[in-house]
Structure formats: C-alpha cells, structure tokens
From TrEMBL:
Main location as per UniProt: other
A GO MF label: oxidoreductase activity
Protein name per Swiss-Prot or TrEMBL: Peroxiredoxin
Keyword terms, alphabetized: Cytochrome c-type biogenesis, Disulfide bond, Redox-active center, Signal
Annotated DUF4369 domain residues: 29-122
GO CC term, one of those recorded: cell envelope
Pfam family, one: AhpC-TSA
Gene3D superfamilies named among the record's database cross-references: Glutaredoxin
Length: 384
C-alpha cells in the first residue's frame, strides 16, 4: 500500500514536472493582429540581428488580414520587423511579450497601431521621426542641391539633440534607446548612420551611455558586447575624428568680405559690400529650425541696443520655402535676403550647425568667424 502511494506521488510529480517544462518551452513572444487592404500579400516576420536581416516566418494574408507569429525569448531585447514589400513595422521584443498590431496597407509603415508594449510605442515614434527626416532630406536634395550638404548636416544635428535628450539619455536601458542608435538616412543612394562614433566623437558618449546601462541589465549578451566594441573603437578613433572636424573657415585675420549679391524680401538686390562704414553681423539662418523664434528675439535685442551706434545685420535665409521665409521676415528691421543661387557656400561649406555668424568691421573686413565668437554681445561692442 505504502509502495503504491509512493509510486502515485512519483508519477504525479513527474507529470507536474513535464507540464512545467512544457510551459517553460512555450515561453516566448507573440505578435498578432490584422493588416487590412492586403489580401494575397505575403507578410514576413524578420529578425534584425547583429549579422543582418533574417526571415523567421511568413504568411499569405486572406481577406481578413489576420496573422499570428511567435518566437522564443532571448537574454536581451531583440528586434523584429513585419514587412510587406518595402513597408516595414519595427518591433522590439523584451522577454515574453504579447504584441498586437493593427495596420493599413500600403501605408502600414506609418499607419499602424501597436499595443501591449510601451517600448514599442516609443519605437514607433522614433520610426516616424526617421521617416520624416528622410523625406526632408530628399526634398532638400531635390530643391536645394547646392546647399543640401550643409543643411542636411544641420538637420541631423537637430535630430540627434532631440533623440538623445528625449529618448536615449532619459532611459538608456530601454530597447527603443538601442533601436535609436542604429537609425540612418539614405543620401545619394548611400546609407548614412545618424549616430556614428567613427565620424563624431560625441556619438561615442551616446553609445557609451547605452552600453553601460545594458551592461547592468543584460550583462554578457552579444548585443551588450557589440555596444562596448563600438564605444571602445570610437574612443580610440577620437583623435582622428577631431582632426577631421577641425574647422576650415574663412581666415579671420582681417580679410575682405566675399560679396553676397542676393535679393531681399521686397525683391531688391542687396550687396554685403554696400555696408562699408558699419559693423555687420552676417548671419546664415533657417527660420524653420527648432529654436528660431527665441534666437530672432535675441538678435532683436542686440539690434535695438547697437543699431544706432552703427550695427547692421545681414541675414541670409537658407530655408527651403521662399514664401515661408517672406512671412517670417516681414516685420524684421534688418536686411533679409534669400539665397536661391548657392552663393553662400563660401561661408557655409564647412558649417555643421546653425546659426552661422561672421562679424565684419567698418572697413568691410571679416574679423571673426563662427568658431571665434564666444560672446556675441561683447564681440560687437569691441567693433563699434
């Protein structure tokens, strides 16, 4: 009798153990939902791994557009894509998540709802920002090719400030922060990483912040080690990066100005060389950039303070939309011109940030270039 009881207990324990093992084996993620307007399209689930993109599963959608994919859990967040043709939805998977996706084809890359993961809502925000940035870059290349390189650099710098401040540095341990590190735009058929430690030493610190955080939360994993490798290489290359970034500007050892014959908002041609006898603040500006309003208010203060003593502002707009520019400058008291010829390149070719400011003395000589101006108010006073 006792032996039978022991046998029953043993069998019961074995059965429970098998159930638990089966349950553990089934642990993983599930992505399901619907893609409307996609009947007969093939939906792929792809893994975005360190070695590249790999197809995991696929399904031919019926009229309902319903789909369901599943996979095993990893030691760290992993990244997947739902794809039909060139329409992609990026998804970050952390542990055993259940993700619900509802999208509309053929705009599923931008027209979708994702539920079940706060991180994936952030991934969506980042993906949409990237798509918008790509669109703006393409528009610049098409409409302002002569200034595209300089303006794209400015847009990328502004984008990086937004992403580091509002996403990466706020929560470097999150999957969406890792995702943000590897975003890119395509310029002239070349993929350009937005964060690239091999070209910008500041980006090394951004990678380092995520690497340190992932080392705490996901120690020893391949993705964590990859982050460390990129950071270490960036640190080793920092000296080379600084040498590449050394400004090659107009030498401000008192040299004559290069004229900028451009039309103002009234249609009159203006010349930078016409202001001999005055101190000129030459400013290259994009009114559509973030922080423009505050910057213009600061310039108004300087203009009101020093105009009567001989200060003039010669502001060159690098905006894409000329009509928008005219609206922005309608009530500004200084000289406002629009460069639709590309003549500003003599001053802007090596710039990596806006605004770009030069100071010109009463003899019509460039005496301060952007890297030499630390306190604009003080530098203006010295020249008056």
């Amino acid at each position: 009798m006792k032996k039978n009881i022991i046998n029953k207990v043993f069998v019961g324990c074995c059965t429970l153990g098998m159930i638990m093992l089966a349950s553990c084996a089934k642990e993983g993620f599930r992505i399901e939902g619907t893609i409307s307007n996609a009947k007969d399209s093939v939906l792929f689930l792809e893994h975005n791994g360190l070695e590249g993109i790999a197809k995991i599963d696929s399904v031919k959608l019926d009229q309902s557009g319903a789909f369901s994919f599943s996979g095993g859990r990893g030691d760290n967040p992993e990244f997947y894509r739902l794809r039909i043709a060139d329409q992609i939805i990026n998804i970050a998977i952390d542990s055993t998540e259940h993700i619900a996706v509802k999208a509309v084809y053929p705009q599923m890359a931008t027209n979708y709802i994702i539920k079940g993961s706060a991180d994936n809502e952030k991934v969506k925000e980042l993906a949409l920002k990237q798509i918008n940035l790509q669109s703006r870059c393409q528009q610049l290349l098409a409409q302002r090719p002569e200034l595209a390189d300089s303006l794209i650099e400015v847009m990328l710098a502004d984008y990086k400030r937004d992403i580091t401040t509002n996403y990466i540095f706020k929560a470097p341990m999150k999957s969406y922060s890792y995702f943000a590190l590897f975003q890119y735009v395509v310029i002239n058929n070349q993929a350009v990483l937005i964060f690239d430690p091999s070209k910008d030493a500041k980006d090394t610190k951004v990678f380092g912040a995520v690497a340190t955080s992932w080392d705490t939360y996901y120690p020893g994993t391949l993705r964590t080690q990859n982050l460390h490798n990129i950071t270490i290489k960036g640190m080793k290359d920092e000296r080379i990066v600084k040498a590449r970034q050394k400004p090659i500007e107009l030498k401000a050892d008192v040299r004559g100005v290069i004229d900028l014959p451009l039309r103002d908002n009234m249609g009159n041609e203006r010349h930078l060389t016409d202001f001999k006898g005055q101190v000129v603040l030459l400013d290259f500006h994009v009114f559509g950039m973030k922080g423009s309003t505050e910057y213009i208010m600061h310039l108004r203060d300087l203009y009101n303070k020093y105009h009567s003593r001989g200060l003039e502002i010669y502001m060159v707009s690098l905006d894409e939309n000329q009509h928008f520019w005219k609206e922005q400058v309608a009530n500004l008291p200084w000289v406002n011109v629009y460069d639709d010829k590309g003549v500003s390149q003599a001053y802007t070719a090596t710039a990596t940030t806006l605004p770009i400011i030069y100071l010109i003395d009463r003899g019509n000589n460039v005496v301060k270039n952007p890297s030499q101006i630390k306190n604009l108010d003080e530098e203006i006073q010295k020249l008056l």
